[in-house]
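Pilot study result, target chain (231 residues):
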Amino acid sequence: MTWRTEFFDGVKTIAPILVAAVPIGLVFGAVAASKGLSPLEATLMSALVFAGGSQFVAMDIWTHPASWSALGFAALLVNIRHMLMGASIGRRMQAFAPWQKYLGMLVMADENWAMSEARAAKRKLTPAFWAGLSVPFYLNWVVCSLIGALIGAFLGDPAVIGLDFAFPAVFIVLVMSFWKGPATGLVLIASAAAAIVVHQHVPGAWYIAAGAAAGLLAALLNGSFRRLVTQ
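Predicted structure:
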């Protein structure tokens, strides 16, 4: 397949997620504006950080003056999963030059990672397909953040019109695309239970790390149990 064909195949694959991400970007821009960030600052944050989860957490704990150490630590907790995601998708990038791998990782998000993993399960992942997924998704996020910051005053409370559910809705769809039966359910239950318990009893963003750790532990234990049974 040609580079052009692969690129537009990636664009078509990510297109439904682009639509779903629009309200999320608008909400982030509106929340950032409500915290006192200018449209330029909100847009730069989306362009340079490009991590919706950590950006929302940062806005949740934003103060004046901002505690950069607290913001940085919260972002680290939220995005530490990217180490595992990068290690996973890195194995699929045999067709990538080294510079393409490094550049590609800079725009890796849950959505293009999940779709790349699904693609790699069927045929070789190419730089053109990755670019087709990532470039529109990145630009969509940045532009929607800008628009949200500009019209934040008119949006009002996102929860009133249901926009606050857009973020979890996208992740529910992504998770279900990886469903592989009861084993997947076990991981999800362990992760959700740990996150809820920690969120109720520990302040800050530790519930995210707890959920990730519990999910990993459940997956490891399940894999070990299966190996013992089949031996």
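One observation from the pilot: The chain has two domains: 3-177, 179-231. A full batch analysis is planned for the follow-on phase.
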